[in-house]
Design brief:
By secondary structure, the protein is of the alpha/beta class. Strand 2 and strand 3 form a beta hairpin. 47% of the residues are buried.
Length: 422
């Protein structure tokens, strides 16, 4: 019988609706990040760097791009004969077939997969955070404390604590209480949604709670274990961790990569982030181009000026075009004489000549004011923006457009222009 000390279950089925049109056709963990990566590369790389070689990836929403990216796990050295990476979508059963309806419900539906490895411990991860963590150190902490459940937690400002699951601990980091998004938090130690369970404890809790609708770790499993007087401990984490769940936090996390001394460093040899390489040709930098403080992906051709921006692989920037404070994703082509400021332009978009993006005053977005904010302009993947168009701040465009569709050749600040797909 196969025996693994620890296996990881990576929850990667989320839609990420707060990322707006970036997740129309892909799950949040598949969204490009940092020029050449996708968000899921970070927890996958953490696993192999931590010596964990068996990872189940639970997918659901728009999984095509994610599945294609993961493949058989070769970039992360997870193409193993025993273990490796396994994609686990919802599947039809003899009775009670259903979609994954909660984080713990997704794990429950794959109890046979976990059982097949007879693990001592199960690591539960989220597929949509940017961070580097040595899970082996967390496992050592779990063992040293003879814990049943260990929750990774990090200090947050007290005024933000109400947005998280909060753990209250004694001096030995044993959890004495757990509150899910409390109105008046008694601690600022927030759960990161990263758990190590002793397998027997997890299995017993999942089976006991199997009838619970939308079974969730924070709302159901952790309180259940606490009520059963299980030994719960908090593993405190104090390094960089970013939930890129909103367009602004996603933009900020990308911009932090290009600081002079980045808080999150992609260039450390001892903890590399691995990814599937999309393009193998080199970059080309034209003789009239300028690049300052930017990440430029492989295969990109730069004929204009790029400042303080993150460009993916295979991007083309035309002559006399200025790109500033922007994220341009893989395969996007931007024409000549454009001005792009605080743009998030998704993969394989085509921007014509003389296009101005991010002009004018800030106005609240007309349809999704909590999503399209902070002066950003978001262009969906494979969109085509016609030559001569001016696009205001806090706006979003998705579709293939011609210039005669826009009065005064302008999209005003705060506008949402999304074409229905045929």
């Amino acid at each position: 019988m196969i025996k693994k000390e620890i296996i990881a279950m990576l929850l990667a089925g989320g839609q990420g609706s707060r990322l707006g049109v970036l997740t129309t056709h892909m799950a949040k963990p598949a969204v490009p990040f940092g020029g050449k990566y996708r968000i899921i590369d970070f927890p996958l790389s953490n696993c192999i760097n931590s010596g964990i070689d068996t990872v189940g990836v639970l997918t659901q929403y728009q999984p095509l791009k994610l599945n294609s990216h993961i493949g058989i796990g070769t970039p992360w050295d997870l193409d193993r004969y025993i273990g490796g990476v396994t994609v686990l979508p919802p599947f039809e059963k003899n009775v009670n077939s259903e979609w994954y309806t909660g984080t713990a419900n997704a794990i429950l539906q794959n109890i046979e997969y976990m059982e097949s490895y007879n693990p001592d411990y199960v690591l539960i991860l989220s597929g949509d955070h940017i961070y580097k963590m040595d899970y082996e150190v967390m496992l050592d902490f779990h063992k040293e404390n003879d814990a049943d459940v260990t929750i990774a937690a990090m200090p947050v400002p007290m005024e933000e604590a109400k947005r998280f699951g909060i753990v209250i601990t004694d001096d030995n980091r044993k959890i004495t209480d757990f509150e899910e998004k409390p109105e008046h938090p008694r601690s600022n130690l927030a759960s990161m949604g990263i758990y190590i369970f002793s397998w027997s404890v997890l299995k017993e809790a999942l089976i006991a709670l199997a009838d619970q609708s939308s079974l969730d770790f924070g709302k159901h499993v952790i309180p259940y274990c606490h009520e059963k007087k299980q030994r719960l401990f908090a593993y405190e984490y104090n390094s960089y961790w970013k939930d890129v769940g909103t367009l602004n936090s996603y933009w900020e996390a990308n911009m932090e990569l290009i600081d002079i001394i980045p808080e999150f460093n992609l260039y450390e040899e001892y903890w590399r982030i691995f990814t599937k390489s999309e393009i193998v040709t080199p970059q080309f930098i034209g003789n009239e181009s300028e690049i300052e403080k930017s990440i430029i992906g492989e295969g990109s051709q730069i004929f204009g000026k790029v400042y303080n921006s993150v460009l993916g692989c295979g991007v083309t920037i035309g002559k006399n075009t200025v790109v500033r404070d922007s994220i341009i994703m893989n395969g996007t082509v931007i024409g000549e004489n454009c001005n792009i400021e605080k743009g998030i332009i998704a993969e394989e978009a085509i921007i014509g000549d003389r296009v101005n993006i991010g002009s004018g005053e800030e106005v609240e977005n007309e349809t999704d004011p909590t999503i399209y904010t902070h002066g950003l302009v978001t262009i969906a993947e494979k969109s085509e923006i016609p030559s001569g168009l001016t696009v205001g701040k806090n706006s979003v465009l998705s579709g293939v457009f011609t210039i005669d569709e826009f009065a005064d050749e302008t999209v005003s600040s705060g506008k949402t222009v999304i074409k229905e797909e045929r």
